Amino acid sequence: MIFVTGGCGFIGSCFVLDWLEQADEPVLNLDALTYAGHLGNLAPVERNARYHFVRGDIRDRALFASLLEKWQPRAIVHFAAESHVDRSIAGPAAFVDTNVNGTVALLEATLAYWQKLGAAQAAAFRFVNVSTDEVFGSLGPGDAPFTESHPYQPNSPYSASKAGADHFVRAWHHTFDLPTITTNCSNNYGPRQFPEKLIPLVIHNALRGEPLPVYGDGQQVRDWLYVADHCSALRAVLAQGKPGATYNIGGRAEMANIDVVRIVCATLDEMRPSPDGQPHERLVRYVTDRRGHDRRYAIDDTKIAGELGWAPSVRFEEGIRRTVRWYLDNEAWVQSVTSGAYRQWIEQQYSAGRP
Ligand code: NAD
Ligand code: TYD
């Protein structure tokens, strides 16, 4: 059995669904069901005998210790986090609580459990810490992409909290020998992403004929990875990654935000034209830039490609088509997650003058 934290979120749910399709091994999902976690994301497997769900907080050491004792997992894949940069600017403390203190709580409980395992089980055990490329800070236009040895230079409260968590994971390996692995992945997109992030927000607003907010000049560059490819990379890391190592994961798809928005708009023009026949791109509005906005992220994936033979398989245009199709086919999901709390966030975030 493996444990997953945060399996009701965007990437965690993709990981659990794919895992149950591709492996025989059971999975236990521990998730607090914050605004970003939705039980409906795992509706297709809720009756699967190999799937177990526990609603709980990763900061609850006693709960996690009791789950470890009961289920004796051979690995933990840790996704649970506060994950949205703009929310971290509006309220940083929650990011420290969940991302730093939550990860340390998991490490403490996991170490106590791991130290009681027999030699063979202890050697085979893995704690995979799912992190982000944002911990490396911002690149200039001509800079080389991030390698695993790039210095940590987090710029937002979100990336600082993820960097903090990564440092503790590293320390638990170095000091206590816990077999941890950290992955630093670029921006994901795909089905079930909460519509506060750029791509689902653009799809959501475009379908309603509402403005598409592009921060600053729209020339910030991100590297985009289809979420199922991130999950295949994590399976490879879990199976073959070296304890104590870190792996960068990317999509080989660097793009300026405005180009991403244009591609999403063109895909919608084709798959769901506006009632008035006008291109969706007419809805683009340049708005005040995000504070401290990182200019560019880019991933050098030489290590994971060479050591683990992993490469992304879905090209950006194809991934966007699949993503748009999913949002068009799942309007009920969008309606259920865009509740009062969602509307309140959008109101606060995009009200006149501040992105
Ligand atoms: P998400 O916000 O969609 O999901 C987070 C999940 O964690 C939710 O189900 C939420 O309920 C749960 N959670 C939050 N706080 C919790 C707590 N205290 N205890 C238990 N569960 C809690 O996030 P995501 O986009 O799926 O990201 C998953 C992980 O991948 C995060 O660690 C994130 O930093 C990392 N990551 C994300 C991206 C991206 O582009 N989305 C890229 C690289 C890395
Ligand atoms: P986001 O999806 O929030 O991911 P991250 O900040 O983790 O990279 O944003 C992706 C990029 O899109 C980022 O450069 C900020 C920008 N952006 C906008 O221009 N408008 C928006 O409404 C949002 C949410 C993001």
Protein described:
It contains 13 helices and twelve strands. The chain has 355 residues and is α/β, with parallel strands linked by helices. It has a domain at 2-191 and 226-253 and 297-315: NAD(P)-binding Rossmann-like Domain (Rossmann fold), CATH 3.40.50. The strands form three sheets. A seven-stranded parallel beta sheet has the order 3-2-1-4-5-6-10, sandwiched between helices. Strands 7-9-11 form a three-stranded mixed beta sheet. The chain has a two-stranded parallel ribbon with strand order 8-12. The mean pLDDT is 97. The protein binds nicotinamide-adenine-dinucleotide and thymidine-5'-diphosphate. Thymidine-5'-diphosphate binds next to α7 and β8.
Helicity range of the residues?
Answer: 40-55%
How are helices and strands ordered from N to C?
Answer: EHEEHEHHHEHEEHEEHEEHEHHHH
Supply the number of helical segments.
13
The profile of the biggest β sheet is:
7 strands, parallel
| The CATH topology of the domain at 2-191 and 226-253 and 297-315 | Rossmann fold
User: Uncertain spans, ≥5 residues at pLDDT below 50?
Assistant: none
Task: Round the mean pLDDT to the nearest integer and report it.
Answer: 97
SS strand fraction: 15-25%
Query: Helices and strands: which structural class?
Result: alpha/beta
Query: Tally of extended strands?
Result: 12
Radius of gyration: 20 Å
CATH superfamily of the domain at 2-191 and 226-253 and 297-315: NAD(P)-binding Rossmann-like Domain
* Small molecules in complex: nicotinamide-adenine-dinucleotide, thymidine-5'-diphosphate
CATH architecture of the domain at 2-191 and 226-253 and 297-315: 3-Layer(aba) Sandwich
- Global morphology: globular
Distance between the termini: 43 Å
* Strands side by side in the biggest sheet: 3-2-1-4-5-6-10
